[in-house]
Amino acid sequence: MTTALQRPRNGALIAGVCAGIAQRFGWNVGLVRLLFVVSCILPGPQFLIYVALWIVMPKQ
Known about the structure:
mainly alpha
């Protein structure tokens, strides 16, 4: 588990947000991506949060 929330340069599919979250908390990146896709079925601001994290999270 790393101490900082950062988007990795390697292993990113779109922006690296899910990969950065998985790396930070020591989770499986596939699970984080699956949870994000499933959450997009539910109503809410998931895409806005993803874009905001894309902007806020620094690259490694």
